[in-house]
Amino acid sequence: MSIRSLVLERFSQPQKCHGHCEGPATPHVVRDDGTVTVVATACDKGYVSRVVAYGPKDSSSLLRSLVSKATASGSEVKEEDIRAATRYAWDLGMEGSAKGAVFKASYWTQNYRRTESNDPDRGALFACTTCGSLFMQPLSSGSSLCPACSGA
User: 23: helix, coil or strand?
Assistant: First the structure.
């Protein structure tokens, strides 16, 4: 089973949107090169709670680069903003079909801000609800479309 298939099977259940609306947030694949699958968990309005890179080895540098590029106009992503974990067969419920480490997960969570700003106009990462691309806009924006899809 591919990492993408495994991730979508095991981690596709809705979660809570943290830091935006408290509504349901669902995972969406934003990049997949056949080796590393990157998933953004976003609410219906596109606010991204978390971005995770799943792969056979640590993908922290890839994830940092991806998030840094998307947030270039809004914030700097530091190495300590990216967390890493190893997922094993036993914690994925795969006892009979696999042994040991199954994949590595590197993740960035938007609400780990270094500032305590509650400014509704602060920059935030969103995923376009049409094309899935990651982009920055004010937290209070009512748009769920990236500049390319909105024609802005």
Answer: coil
Residue 91 per-residue DSSP state: G
Residues 6+ apart with CB under 8 A from 84: 58, 60, 104, 105, 106, 107
How many CA atoms, within 13 angstroms, populate the side-chain half-sphere of residue 86? 10
- Six-digit token pair at 66? 């991806």
How deeply is 151 buried, as exposed, middle or buried, from its count of CB atoms within 10 A (0-12, 13-18, 19+)? exposed
Q: Which two tokens stand for residue 149?
A: 């899809």
Provide the β-strand partners of residue 139.
none
- C-alpha separations of 34 from 3, 75, 88, 131 in Å: 9, 29, 20, 19
Calculate the CA dihedral of residues 150, 14, 37, 81 and round it to 10 degrees: 80
Structure tokens at 53: 């890179």
Confidence of residue 114 (pLDDT cuts 50, 70, 90): low
The pTM of the full predicted model, rounded to 2 decimals, is: 0.87
